[in-house]
Design a protein that fits this description.
Length: 196
């Protein structure tokens, strides 16, 4: 690997960790600003189903528990040498428990990403997103997959809060897009794109 390639790979690894940290900061902000009334509430706006009574709409508690539990699975399958956080019970998880668990699983995912994108090839050689799926070579695609999964579920959380009559404040909704601020809150010295 040339010195230029080595430098780019090192920057990519550092940026991936900061990006995932900012991603988790968004989760933390959402939980901080959700009205407690929506945490375990079920919406009456059911998707079309043959039997609406059997429609499985997750609560917001279940969605955040799922996000954490999937992170645990990624770490367990991809980086078994790292300590796997304890999973959350989606039926009994509190916002405080979710915030603590997400912070822990975000730290493990950041370690996993750093090891996957290390300049020397790293300890993590492939990404295993599920037991049924073929592994991918470690690379930026794993970060993209992880971010897409979480963004999908954050969209569900925002929609459910709105449907339940407790939409998140505009400041929070627009704050999810203020990556300069998120980046800074996560301890980055420079703004996105300037991590040399």
């Amino acid at each position: 690997m040339s010195s230029r390639q080595l430098k780019l790979h090192t920057q990519l690894g550092r940026a991936a960790v900061q990006i995932f940290d900012a991603n988790d900061r968004i989760n933390q902000i959402l939980i901080e600003h959700l009205d407690p009334a929506v945490w375990t509430a079920k919406t009456t706006a059911q998707p079309r189903a043959k039997n609406p009574a059997k429609s499985n709409v997750r609560t917001i508690a279940a969605i955040f528990s799922h996000m954490h539990n999937v992170r645990c699975k990624w770490v367990r399958l991809t980086a078994p040498h790292l300590k796997v956080p304890q999973q959350l019970n989606r039926a009994h998880c509190t916002p405080r428990q979710a915030r603590a668990a997400l912070a822990e699983s975000a730290a493990r995912c950041a370690q996993m990403l750093a090891q996957a994108l290390a300049a020397d090839g790293g300890r993590v050689k492939e990404f295993r997103r599920d037991g049924w799926a073929r592994p991918w070579p470690a690379g930026p695609e794993m970060l993209c997959y992880m971010l897409a999964h979480e963004a999908h579920h954050r969209g569900q959380v925002c929609m459910l809060a709105h449907q339940l009559g407790f939409p998140l404040p505009i400041k929070v909704m627009s704050g999810m897009w203020n990556w300069e601020k998120l980046w800074k809150e996560c301890g980055a010295r420079l703004r996105p794109g300037y991590n040399s």
